[in-house]
Design goal:
This protein has a 6-stranded mixed beta sheet with strand order 7-8-9-10-13-14, with helices on one face. A 4-stranded mixed beta sheet has the order 1-2-3-4. A two-stranded antiparallel ribbon has the order 5-6. Helix 1 packs parallel to helix 3. The protein has one domain: Carbon-nitrogen hydrolase (Nitrilase/N-carbamoyl-D-aminoacid amidohydrolase, 4-Layer Sandwich). A hairpin with a 5-residue loop joins strand 5 and strand 6. It has 267 residues and is an alpha+beta fold. The protein has 6 helices and 14 strands.
Length: 267
């Protein structure tokens, strides 16, 4: 997607593309981070989940189309003047099955011109979230989480065959790290990685990297987009996750260890 500021048109765009994906045979559809608005201005974002127009709309859409639907994220009010960057999973019965609040805040200076402090407006989540799909277990994450491999390893060890990384990556970090990080998480975990991404120059002049990816458990890229809005349709064989873990069972090889630090200088 290339989400704008106003929520209504963004929801319209998302619904149109979800319907198109369903029309091409998709049973599980995923959208990027910031599906409802790309803006970080609080007045554009804050509304409680029960009043957010996207929640009821996407739940109803999943029910109407009889699909599993992951909305990469929408901002919802959580109190104290902050909101959560929340990913939603809706089931084919039209119900919310699970939600995940982004744990790791993007508080960085990626270049001399570009810096971000998500913690000024977002409240970090504190729970890793898994959900069961008809094809296997799903582990949920958002964007900057991808730099914290222990989160994905824990979810994979808890049975996740599929890992979702909806994102709005910056251009400099995307060019340097996007493909490498996503492939590493897939390989380390022996899991599929689904990473729908925002791309291009947005209405508020924010630039995102795009390049949505689907990666298999051996690190192979099954599908890739560019920066323009697009639909990727991929057939998934869930047994490939089991095969990768049999071939390389590193998830069962963790060992406890001590960390020996060098003596303090001057001693």
């Amino acid at each position: 997607m290339r989400t704008g500021v106003a929520v209504g048109p963004n929801l319209d765009d998302a619904e149109r593309m979800i319907r198109e994906a369903h029309g091409q045979g998709a049973q599980f559809v995923l959208t990027p981070e910031n599906t409802s608005t790309i803006s970080l201005v609080k007045s554009d974002q804050i509304r409680q989940e029960a009043a957010h127009p996207g929640v009821a709309r996407f739940a109803a859409l999943a029910g109407e189309l009889n699909i599993w639907l992951l909305i990469g994220s929408m901002g919802v009010e959580v109190g104290a003047g902050k909101f959560a960057n929340r990913s939603f999973l809706f089931g084919p019965g039209g119900q919310k099955v699970a939600h995940y609040d982004k744990i790791h805040m993007f508080d960085v200076a990626v270049s001399e011109r570009e810096s971000w402090t998500e913690s000024d407006t977002y409240q970090a989540g504190d729970r890793a979230v898994l959900a069961d799909l008809p094809w296997g277990r799903l582990g949920m994450s958002i964007c900057y989480d991808v730099r914290f491999p222990h989160l994905y390893r824990d979810m994979a060890k808890a049975g996740a065959r599929f890992l979702t990384v909806p994102s709005a990556f910056t251009v400099p970090t995307g060019q340097a790290h996007w493909h490498t990080l996503l492939k590493a998480r897939a390989i380390e975990c022996g899991a599929f990685v689904f990473a729908p991404a925002q791309g291009g120059t947005h209405e508020n002049n924010r630039e995102t990297y795009g390049h949505s990816l689907v990666i298999d458990p051996w690190g192979g890229i099954l599908a890739a987009a560019g920066t323009d809005p697009a639909i990727l349709l991929v057939d998934i064989d869930p047994s490939l996750a089991d095969e990768a873990r049999r071939r390389l069972p590193s998830l069962t090889h963790d060992r406890d260890y001590l960390l020996d630090l060098p003596p303090a200088s001057g001693n």
